[in-house]
Fold:
Amino acid sequence: MTADPTRALAPVVRLAPAKVNLTLAVLGTRPDGFHALHSVFVPVDLADRLSVAVLPPGAKDILHVDGHDAGPTEDNLVLRAIRAAREAARPEWGRPEPPPALAARLEKRIPVAAGLAGGSSDAAAALDAALEAWGVTLDASTRHDVAARLGSDVPFFAVGGPALIEGRGEQLTPLPWLRGDLAGGDRPGLLLVTPSCGVSTPAAYRAWDEGARVPGGAARMASLHLAEELRKGILGVADLVTRASVLAAANDLAPAAAVVEPGLVPFKRALLRLLGRPVGVSGSGPTHWALYPSHAEAQVAADLVRAAVARGDVVAPGPREPFVAAVRILAPARATKGDSA
Ligand code: C5P
Structure:
């Protein structure tokens, strides 16, 4: 489609959800230096908010960030995504000058360097919002390639629901969500606890390369099994919660995150003692999660953690108190129709 020059100049707004890894198996190192993964990603309803508006001719892209500190603005993936979108949009744009500059405003509600892919989600949202602001449509494969070049986790956010991730993150298989979820019954809730220390993803992969691994391939088995059960549509909410201990153990980057940030070891032990249920790690950490049969139960647990942090019974590494939230897993849009228990 060619760009429509008569489009209204109202800002385009996107929510950029966080993701949680229910499983994360690192299968090996690839020739390009990245790692081959097998991972079940789920989007959750903790989201950044991005708005973009078209600027007059001659202006430069600008970004204003509120909320969690996301580091230097000029390095922000939102600006890189807008530039990549502009480059990719040129053939469709069909005019000699490039698509105009954008003013972007980002409200960071997702903790940074947390294993929640907040920056990648912002990039996916920026790509989408920029194209919308310019009135340009890209074919799915071009969009996917632009997303994959921005970062390994970026393509996932175009799926709009749980997905199996393979390769370095570019191979995506959308997964149907739980049987009975959204059909009026309880939906699973996730408690997220993110120490403020942050863990750099490259540092966690480096620690894995240097031997911070669990032998035995349990994460791979658990990941294959979960993806297959979700694909077949045979898992209900209670089944997922029953599998929590297997899933919580199924993250090959958890030992690496604990090497990068040794304070995560006593932190996790304290959480386990407090919650009395399995505690997993998302991505390369330091976000820890616990799965509950309902959002209400996850909220009770969140209050329990906040109180324990205030008392000093749970000590999280990092300069500030940990971020604590109860969130819902976002099911794919199609599961809202005719999905029954
Ligand atoms: O792709 P992205 O920029 O998000 O990756 C950040 C870093 O994480 C990479 O530079 C690489 O060190 C590591 N990584 C990896 N294998 C993946 C994804 C990320 O080694 N599948």
